[in-house]
User: What shape does this take?
Amino acid sequence: MDQSGVLLWVKAEPFIVGALQVPPPSKFSLHYLRKISTYVRTRATEGAYPRLYWSTWRHIACGKLQLAKDLAWLYFEIFDSLAVKTPEERLEWSEILSNCMSEEEVEKQRNQLSVDTLQFLLFLYIQQLNKVSLRTSLIGEEWPSPRNRSQSPDLSEKSSCHIKNWNDYSHHAFVCDHLSDLLELLLDPEQLTASFHSNCSSLVSREAVGALSFLIEVEGTTRRAKIACNTHVAPRMHRLVVMSQVYKQTLAKSSETLVGAHVKIHRCNESFIYLLSPLRSVTIEKCRNSTFVLGPVQTALHLHSCDSVKVIAVCHRLSISSTTGCIFHILTPTRPLVLSGNRTVTFAPFHTHYPMLEDHMARTGLATVPNYWDNPMIVCRENSNTSVFQLLPPCEFYVFIIPFEMEGDTTEIPGGLPAAYQKALGQREQKIQIWQKTVKEARLTKDQRKQFQVLVENKFYEWLINTGHRQQLDSLVPPAAGSKQAAG
Assistant: This one.
């Protein structure tokens, strides 16, 4: 290889975080996006080009594409979350929203937001990544081709959107296969023929080349590492960490390897996983009977095909698909997205802390308000039945203690707890005090106290086994030279 050459990377982040894991609206097709491309250029003075304002996109999406307003905002906000912003800017926006007293005030603030028009068109186009093809629906897999012959056995399972979102080969293939369409979206209207196609003499403008940086990055001779972690060689926005097949273990890590990385957790079972660093995005798929405690997730946290999983996290956005019996203790400034195939989902308030948590939240631009953990948005075509989820009853609520010593200043749950849940904790604490008082006033003899202590310990031991907590406690016992620190 010529060492003076360069490589073009297809960015993973727009697909991992930006491509919503549902089939796109039918009017996100190239035909309609070409029309939008022409429309916005003719209304440059009306907040459409080169920056597209929310009010203009709302008019296009709701008036011309017939999208619901909430769905129009969802796509706009997801794209905006991918923009390069400082943590201070994100915290300032959270504060502005938290001070709004009505939906009208929220809308007034949203109207001041704008995004890069050309990059937003590319963003809408890549939603086709998860488009359901007729032939795939009929035969259950793609037509044979040289591309999917080389896929690993795990990737050769039935085609599904969650695999495409994390499969870097799918990202590369999508851009290569649709590059001409992507370029046409970026051309000026006068460069297109009457049938909306480019001709061989069409030249791409400087602005269009800049817009392509949303999907393509130029890098030197760095090679992509084919290992579980590529953070030591990959460009900053391509840092990936993959964890797979953790079984009956407790795994805890807080390190620079995780900071700003896209993390994928795959096929973990009966495990407790703590990733206590500021993360860029997290995808959890095909996991069972496990608990995941995450540091703040700057963009998207997505779960797919998980059973009986508990997730505890502060995140910009949560989305779930094909989950069963999962519990989500979250703090999030956006509505959780309930995609297709979910059953018996429970949402609950964020209920833990670790010493560096508030510092990590500041680094990712995540604040305690607004917090929409209890207001999920159902985004699936089969139905909009809200019975698919419930809010955790306060009587079943307990705080979660992270069992590691770390340095830092956070000593309580950021933002506190909703009143109903705080009240439930207070009532339970009161019962404990009454019980302790009853035992004290019983005036037991020394032998009776010993018998009573053995009885309580036996009952507690039975409870540990029946709830599965015994396994977690056992797995916390370190090797002979183990460290108390969660840092890895």
User: Anything to note?
Assistant: Residues 136-162, 220-227, 481-488 have pLDDT under 50 and may be disordered. The two ends are 36 Å apart (CA to CA). The CA atoms of residues 136 and 142 lie 5 Å apart. Residues 419-441 form the longest helix (23 residues).
